[in-house]
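Workshop exercise sheet. Pairs work together: one partner reads the sequence aloud, the other fills in the structure field after running the prediction. Swap roles for the next sheet.
Pair: D.N. / O.F.
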Amino acid sequence: MTLPPADTPLYNHPLPQIERWLTALGGEKDTQAPHCWHIQFPQWTAELCLDIEEVTVRYFPRNSEREIARSFKYSLSREDIEAAVLAGP
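Structure field:
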């Protein structure tokens, strides 16, 4: 099963495809909260949670104790969400 084109809104992706996409980004599914995924980067880590109406991303910069949270509607394209997430805090 291949992913829809990157400009497709995330709400048009079946859950297994979203999970495959998050895995390809380097994400690991949270065993305690299976709707959340963790991604590690050199300067920060992120927790992405697939909430009811949006994807919530919490960033944890390694050089700061301040957490940064952002939310993205499922109506955004996969490429837009990916670009925003990978841009970091």
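Discussion prompt: The helical segments are 15-24, 78-87. What would you look at next?
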